[in-house]
Design goal:
Blueprint: H1 3-28, H2 35-39, H3 46-53, H4 56-79, H5 83-100, H6 118-131, H7 137-148, H8 161-186, E1 217-219, E2 222-224, E3 227-230, H9 232-235, H10 252-256, H11 259-271, E4 276-279, H12 284-294, E5 299-302, H13 314-330, E6 335-338, H14 340-348, H15 352-363, E7 369-373, H16 376-384, E8 391-395, H17 420-427, E9 434-437, H18 447-456, E10 461-465, H19 468-484
Parallel strand pairs: 3-4, 3-10, 4-5, 5-6, 6-7, 7-8, 8-9, 9-10
Antiparallel strand pairs: 1-2
């Protein structure tokens, strides 16, 4: 065997590692299912995949085949056992994945691959390996035994140094992965009730999802899910009031939302039908990393933030908003909106010219531009001065929680949504789409109360910060609200 055979073997083992990792990851996830993936198929075979997803018995077989198929294909490729069969099966599986979710559908930002994505590249590589798989572990062991006996190996089994190293590496990979998997799947787990060892954390999985949430809100060319993921919890900051240990770089939210957990959360959100996350520009790297590592498609909207403009006056802040928007769009943002603290301030000070010019400059970026605010009077100010965005972001909740503060302008987490009744009445007259946020008062209001309150009173969509273990329940709740039919609203649906 020559260097070429050794390189083929190295390529085979690298792809095998990817398959094995994906299979093991699915096995250790609680209630993992391919149902959401199949349900979101929109290409020519979409009806077939959706029909398969609708049958629970078929889905059990598909999930089993996916989990253990990936594991067995990965083991075969790494070890070189039935390598041609493993390569062929792997290529076929990747083609099915590709047909179900081709990369050009819903492609956004600089991380999509248009036609040729990692699945198709690996499928092509496996097609080559069907013909030339390279040496396997068996070849290595036979060669090793021949050398121990100081007897020349048969010509077809004689190995060079590179092939020896590749095969021995495969043995090490399998041993390491086996140990890690055993520890992960069956080893001791944390128990918060009794001691340092015990139970695994369980939450509502995709098998309990009623159906992926509708993506029926249209803003310009954008199509958004009616439930949008807020980025506060992922960033580690989510208005915890006096619970100081929750937020910040060393808080509980940041400790839970590790980079790997965050990628999982975004992937989980997409499987529930949530197709949008609203973030501060500081989290753009987090989303684009998810796109690149996992082939995700979730789109992001930023609040522009304050980026780089010198000074603290209103003109500097307006300039910073434009800079933040331009940077966001350059890096793949589907939309941007003006941050509420700044817009409220400009409205209070009557700076309509500055406000209008800032919005006009942002609209040149070619994406829908919104205005965020914590006061419905900011909306009124804008419309009275011909400052008209593509959509509004408004804080909105019932204020029926004990820690709500009484008035706007007190610089307190709980000061927002000072006049829900006035907001309902005024927004009933506003034609632009309206996304409500802070609908749960940073955890002070239960979703069973906050969600219907927002939708019944005029919101077209809601933005909610969620942990991954809350998503399915929240999506099911929104689905239930819409399935029952909302009471007649004074404001028309967008």
């Amino acid at each position: 065997m020559n260097m070429r055979d050794g390189l083929y073997a190295l390529l085979r083992m690298a792809i095998g590692w990817h398959f094995l990792y994906e299979g093991v990851w699915k096995l250790v996830q609680e209630n993992w299912s391919a149902k959401g993936f199949l349900q979101s198929s929109d290409w020519f075979a979409g009806p077939l995949f959706k029909a398969l997803a609708a049958n629970p018995a078929v889905m059990r077989g598909i999930d089993f085949a996916n989990e253990w198929g990936l594991v067995l294909i990965g083991l075969g490729l790494i070890a070189g056992v039935l390598a041609r069969w493993a390569a062929g099966a792997g290529a076929l599986l990747l083609v099915f994945y590709y047909v179900c979710q081709p990369p050009w559908l819903n492609a956004t930002g600089d991380a999509h691959y248009l036609f040729l994505d990692v699945r198709l590249v690996e499928a092509l590589a496996l097609g080559v390996l069907v013909c030339t798989p390279g040496p396997g572990i068996g070849d290595v062991l036979r060669g090793l035994w021949a050398k121990i006996r100081k007897a020349p190996a048969p010509e077809t089994e004689r190995l060079g140094r590179r092939e020896w190293l590749g095969g021995l590496a495969a043995c090490g990979v399998l041993a390491t992965f086996g140990g890690l998997f055993a520890r992960w799947k069956w080893g001791p787990k944390v128990d918060a009730v009794t001691s340092a060892t015990a139970k695994a954390f369980e939450f509502t999985g995709l098998d309990q999802l009623s159906h992926p949430i509708d993506q029926t809100l249209k803003i310009g060319t954008l199509r958004l899910s009616r439930l949008i993921l807020g980025g506060g919890m992922i960033s580690g900051y989510a208005h915890p009031r006096d619970l100081k240990y929750l937020s910040g770089p060393n808080g509980l939210m940041k400790a839970y939302n590790t980079p790997d957990r965050t990628r999982h959360t975004l992937a989980f959100a997409e499987k529930t039908g949530i197709n949008t996350i609203i973030i501060n520009p500081l989290l753009i790297d987090t989303v684009t990393d998810y796109w690149k590592r996992m082939g995700g498609k979730i789109q992001f909207i930023t609040n522009c933030g304050y980026h780089g403009a010198a000074g603290t006056g209103e003109e500097a802040i307006a300039k910073g908003l434009v800079q933040g928007a331009r940077m966001s769009v350059d890096r793949g943002a589907a939309s941007c909106f003006m941050r509420g603290e700044y817009t409220d301030n400009m409205a209070v000070k009557g700076q309509d010219k500055l406000f209008r010019n800032c919005l006009a400059e942002m609209k040149t970026l070619g994406v829908p531009i919104g205005i965020g605010c914590h006061e419905w009077r900011t909306v009124k100010f804008c419309l009275e001065h011909d400052i008209v965005p593509d959509y509004w972001m408004l804080t909105f909740n019932s204020r029926k929680y004990w820690s709500a503060t009484p008035s706007f302008g007190t610089n307190h987490d709980n000061c927002w949504c000072t006049d829900p009744e006035g907001l309902k009445a005024y927004m009933a007259t506003v034609p632009q789409p309206w996304i409500a946020f802070k609908v749960l008062g940073a955890g002070a209001i239960h979703p069973r109360e906050g969600f219907p309150y927002a939708f019944n009173n005029g919101a077209d969509a809601i933005c909610v910060g969620m942990f991954d273990f809350q998503m399915v329940e929240n999506v099911n709740l929104v689905n239930k609200i819409f399935a029952k039919g909302l009471p007649a609203r004074t404001r028309k649906w967008n």
